[in-house]
Structure formats: structure tokens, C-alpha cells
Amino acid sequence: MQHDNAGSPPSFGRPLDGIRVLALEQVMAVPFATQLLARLGADVVKVEPLTGESGRASQPAMIDAAGQPAGATFLRYGGSKRAVAVDYRDERGRDLILRLAESFDVVAENLGPGRADKFGLGYEAMSARNPKLIYLSVTGFGSRGDSPYASWPAYAAVAEAMSGIYEYARRPHQPPVINPVGGLGDIGSGMFGVIGVLAALRHRDRTGLGQHIDIAMLDSMIAIADVPVNYWSMGMRAEPDTELRVPYILNSFRASDGWCVVQVIRDHQFPRLARLLGHPEWESDERFATRWGWYDHWSDTIRPALEAWAADRTMLAAASELAAAGVTAAPCLTAEQLVADPHVTARRMLVEIPRPDGVEQPVLVPGNPVKLSRVPEQPDSLPPTVGQHTAEVLASDLGLTAPEIESLRAAGVIGVAGPARP
């Protein structure tokens, strides 16, 4: 990280210091969004059912300090938050959440289509109590009711499939590859949610008013998977179970220890590749006179030459030489190789979560990709146990006394747990 002068960076605080987020969240999209907001300084309070949100039940899992399962999905996006357990099916629980929302800047929810409104926790109910409230909803198809699929439940694969990217990337006579980049539909939706929250906070600075941010996962994936419809509209269309013919090289090749990807998309890049591979004659070869020829002769000419050249080179060496020659390439890393990669270490892009259940290998989750030159990164707090901060939040925000909190706990309205770790 670069700073204006040597030594410790000046302490400006974090951009979202003082912003409070109440998260009625589960699984991935909103948990990712609120974790990013927390890493930027927001105080995020996660509201869960008494048994915990569904991401805690994902597999694989570890056993947390409270002796409860903590699933991989929850662990990835649970850090840097406080956790409150409330039964919002109970009227008293709903009242607690509504009262809490009066002192928060943002409410973020992805409970499922129409569920927040069903429980009286939707935007209208909350904004009536707090007109300055910014309310983020993430659903598969939007919360306005203008989509024919509005009532459908949706995970990432649903939005990804309907965006067209699965069929676009499908190889002839093979089924689609599902979730090829993990939960892209969730993470992409969460990122757009963060952008919406930041924009709404800026808008509130000028107007004093909150608003509802409506993020549809399918909308997000259409924005991210931008190629299928755009290319189709420009005449690039494939017959069923045929390969789409494209005017560029974007493919893989074998090196001595694995696979690399290479991308040649501009006219000046192909001669660089040709010279590096020892085939300067390709520059005047009529077969390669246009970019379409690169595609047409990839399998019979270019790839064999590239793989012959790379046969005694490692993935990293091959990619490095291609990059030095001005050709875009990269190794296709395994998880083990990524963990040991010097970029990952230098950028602190993997965070270790120690396991209290006796397993030596810590859980690794992604770090913060947003690097700010004037804001030093701070370590994430560990993912909370269910209800770890219930008593703390209800006492500080609502002024509830210890006997009142105990009465709600005994009635099954809230879940209260002691600190998970020192």
C-alpha cells in the first residue's frame, strides 16, 4: 500500500465510519455486500433467526466456539459484523427489529421474494418510522412486481443461467458448466447493492431523504455477462450445438505442469505471438490476414505451435514470456497454487479464520479487494456466533435492561450467547 510519506499512514478513519447497517441477510448476496460495507468502516449488525441464517448450515462446515456448525458460505462473508438473534415471526421480535431500524442508516435484506413485507419488515413499514432510512433489497428478479418471475426463489445459478452466459459458453454436444466462477450471481448482485447504498447515502446527504434500492440478481448478471446478447445483436450467432465463430483468440493451452489461458484480440498482438513462437512467416500468411483466420486455424496451426513451445516451460514461465512479449496470458492456478502465490500474499487477499474445533488448517476466505491509499486496511473481526451480540445491541440501542433481555430470551423471542472468543 502506498502512502504520502514513509512510516505509518495518517489516521483519517475509514470512509463509512459512523454509518450503521442492519442486515436481515442470508447465504451470499447481501452478506457479501454488508461485509464489504463493514470493511469500509460501517457498523454492521446481522439479524438472524434463533437457529442462525441458512448460510451457517452450508457444507463443508466447521464447529465454532459455541459448539455450533459454521458453514463455508457463512464463514466467507460473516466477518467484521455483530450478530443479533431475533425470532421475527413473533410480533415482539418484529417490534424489536423495527425499533432498531430507527437508529440505523441502512437496512439490507435478501430474505426472499415478498418475505420482508410479509413479516412487516419491508421498506414501507421501516421508512414510515425512519424517513432517512436507505433500504436495500436483493432478490432474484426484483421487488417491484414487474417481472413474471418475481415470486421465484433464486440462487446464483438461476440468474447466471437466465443471463445467457451458460448457453453462450457451452461446448457443442456437452451440458452447460454450472457455477463456473462460484456464486457470481450473488457476488455481482452484492457489488451492485453496495454501489446503490453508496449512491443513496450521497443522495441523502443532499436531500435528507432515504430510498429503496431494488437489486435483481438477473439484472446484475445481464450487466456482468454482457457478451451473449450484444454479440447476437451484431450478427455473431451459432447454430445449435456448434461452436461460435469469433474474430479473436481466447483459449487455453498446455504447459509442462498445467494449463494457461491466452488472449489475442488486436491486430498488433498476433505478430508478437508469431515471432515469440518462432513463426515470423505467419505475419504474411494469408490464413491469418484477418482475425477470423486466427479462430479458423487455432486448432490446426496456432495451438500445436504454442503447446510445442510451452512443452518444456512451466505455466508461470510460459505466461511470463508471453506477457514480456506483449501477449496477454496467465496460468490457470489450482487452489493450492493460489494460496502460495506472491500476489495474494502481497495484497493480503486471503484471510485466515482459526478453527476452534481442533483442526490445524485454518479456514481461508477472500480478503478485501478495495485498497485505499489513505485508509490502512484493518483486520476483520472473526465471524460471530449466533446471538453473540444480542444483549449488547438491545441494551445500547434500545435501552433494554438485563431483566428485560432475559425475559425476551426466556420467551423464545431472542437468542443470547456469550462472547465467542476473547
Considering the chains and any ligands shown, give keywords for the structure.
2 domains; formyl-coa transferase, domain 3; seven-stranded mixed beta sheet; Rossmann fold; three-stranded antiparallel beta sheet; 14 strands; 37% helix; disordered N terminus; alpha/beta; 422 residues
Our count of helices gives 18
Number of strands: 14
Report the mean per-residue pLDDT as an integer: 95
At the fold tier of CATH, the topology name of the largest domain is: Rossmann fold
Cα(first) to Cα(last) distance is 30 Å
Q: What proportion strand?
A: 15-25%
Under the CATH scheme, the architecture of the largest domain is 3-Layer(aba) Sandwich
CATH superfamily of the largest domain: Crotonobetainyl-coa:carnitine coa-transferase, domain 1
Unreliable spans are: 1-7
